[in-house]
Amino acid sequence: MLSEILDFIVAIETPEEIRGAAVLGAAAVALDRCSKPIRWEGFDETEASWEPLDPQRAYSRLRSGMQVVDRRGAADAEELAAFGAAIEHAAASIGALAPVPDPGPTAARAKELDQFCGEVDFRVAVHIVSDATPFSGSRLEGLAKAAGFELDRVDGRFRRRDRHGRIMCALLNFGPTPFSIDRLKSLSTHGVTLELDVPRTPRGAFEQFRDTARALAERLNARIVDDNRQSLGPAAFDAIGARVQAVHRGMEARGIVPGGALALRLFS
What we know:
By secondary structure, the chain is of the alpha+beta class. Helices cover about 40% and strands about 30% of the residues.
């Protein structure tokens, strides 16, 4: 759903109900040039609430929003003005009105939000390595599945999700070869990496991440190390956990739930 925190929203009002498809068609060409995601909503008069735009449904009130911040940076006032002009022109072509808000305040807010995101956007990665016998792919696959991970065939990473489908952490090969169904049986590696994408994971994810790293190290008779192959003990995990908690508190103070829908959009 559109958010005042994350979107530059332009409302559209029509003299009579119009199908969502007509509005989408009128704006499609102009909006193809936008560098940020665009979302549409229509107002459900029965429920008295906004809903994702249904192309086949008729509405008298619609709105479109351009996301102003993501991991690529913030949209500037010029981009927002261009988006607003495109919506205004599309609305006029179907006999509707779309007054465009001043993009200046939104651009300033986007710049500040982007700065905040840069301060809290980080990943935690630890490596479970063997200094002697390498791990077999079959062994890793069995341990990963037992811990609740599923292999993503697109990028060759195992991912563990919670009951809501949110990614809690990822497991990938420490070596250059991604995991794959075809290669796992013959794979041999001296290490795996466990990764936590902090702002995109909910509270409690770090504890699962830490416990998973320890369990894998124990079962593989391996060490947990950082990027410099220095061993990580309880004190190091406590320090990482404190930083994760600080990030999550900072996000919540801004109305952004860690691992929630808004966070997944913002840190994408």
